[in-house]
Every structure is written in structure tokens, then in C-alpha cells.
């Protein structure tokens, strides 16, 4: 059960930590529901989106770019490979290194899952008008790209 804002009190209901966490939990629930028919979860979708349209990179490079530890990335790539959505292959320029790339099935699943993800985001942002939703994304992008 989600607490109502008035039940939380002003000290908690205005805290950025609480607000961002609440939005994230809601978005995760929406993604779980909307992605169910695609057979992948939002973390796997993130990997597919990252790989799309890029030169193949190693698992380690993908993990580094996405801020995921190597062990977790191995699990994500293993799961996507079992589903036939990505493949590991030897790097043409360095046979000692394996790279990861999308398969045709991965591209199809990516398209379907991206539509489902878009709908999940629309549902989350439904209380905002288009200008506010755009502004929220811009502000979050600025926060995410700012040096710490």
C-alpha cells in the first residue's frame, strides 16, 4: 500500500530521497507489468538499448558504460544470450577479446520492449502535462551528467 502524501508529513513528503525512490518504485512496477509480454525486464532492456546501433563492445566495456559491476553484467548478458537476443563473438581486431552484439531477434524484442517502456513512462508521467514531463527529463539529465 502506498502512503498518501498527507499521511507522511511535511518533513518526509518533501524529501528528494523519498520522492525519487517513490517514483522509481512506481516506474519499476509499471515496467514489470508492461514488459511482461516481451520476456525481458527493464535491466535487460537497458542493455539492449545500449547495444543498439553501436559498434560491438566487450562485456566489460558495456558494464563500465552502464555503471554495472562485471558480475551483474555477466548475468545480464547470459540471460539475453539464452533468449537469443544477443551473441558473444570474437572481436575481429583482437581474437582474444569477445564482444557482444544484438541478434535480429534482439532487435525485434528491443522494438517491442521500447514501445512497452514508453507506455510505462507515459503512465508514470500521466499527471504532468507535456511541457512538465519534458522539463523533468531535462532536469534529471542535467543531474545525471553533472560531475560529483
From TrEMBL:
Q: Keyword annotations for this protein?
A: DNA-binding, Transcription, Transcription regulation
Q: What Pfam families does the entry give?
A: MarR_2
Cite the InterPro entries for this sequence: HTH_MarR-typ, Tscrpt_reg_MarR-type_CS, WH-like_DNA-bd_sf, WH_DNA-bd_sf
Question: Would you say which domain of life the source belongs to?
Answer: Bacteria
Annotated GO molecular function terms are:
DNA binding; DNA-binding transcription factor activity
Domain (HTH marR-type) ranges? 13-145
Which SMART domains has this protein been placed in? HTH_MARR
Q: Does the keyword Disulfide bond apply?
A: no
Q: Which PANTHER family match?
A: TRANSCRIPTIONAL REGULATOR, MARR, TRANSCRIPTIONAL REPRESSOR OF EMRAB OPERON
Protein name in the entry? DNA-binding MarR family transcriptional regulator
Q: Which organism is it from?
A: Microlunatus antarcticus
What taxonomic ancestry is recorded?
Bacteria, Bacillati, Actinomycetota, Actinomycetes, Propionibacteriales
Amino acid at each position: 500500500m502506498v502512503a498518501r502524501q498527507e499521511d507522511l508529513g511535511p518533513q518526509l513528503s518533501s524529501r528528494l530521497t523519498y520522492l525519487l525512490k517513490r517514483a522509481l518504485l512506481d516506474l519499476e512496477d509499471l515496467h514489470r507489468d508492461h514488459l511482461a509480454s516481451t520476456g525481458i525486464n527493464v535491466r535487460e532492456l537497458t542493455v539492449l538499448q545500449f547495444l543498439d546501433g553501436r559498434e560491438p563492445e566487450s562485456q566489460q566495456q558495456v558494464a563500465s558504460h552502464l555503471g554495472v559491476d562485471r558480475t551483474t553484467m555477466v548475468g545480464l548478458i547470459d540471460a539475453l544470450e539464452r533468449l537469443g537476443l544477443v551473441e558473444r563473438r570474437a572481436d575481429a581486431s583482437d581474437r582474444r577479446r569477445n564482444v557482444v552484439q544484438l541478434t535480429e531477434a534482439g532487435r525485434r524484442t528491443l522494438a517491442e520492449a521500447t514501445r512497452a517502456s514508453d507506455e510505462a513512462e507515459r503512465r508514470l508521467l500521466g499527471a504532468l502535462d507535456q511541457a512538465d514531463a519534458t522539463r523533468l527529463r531535462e532536469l534529471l539529465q542535467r543531474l545525471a551528467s553533472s560531475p560529483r
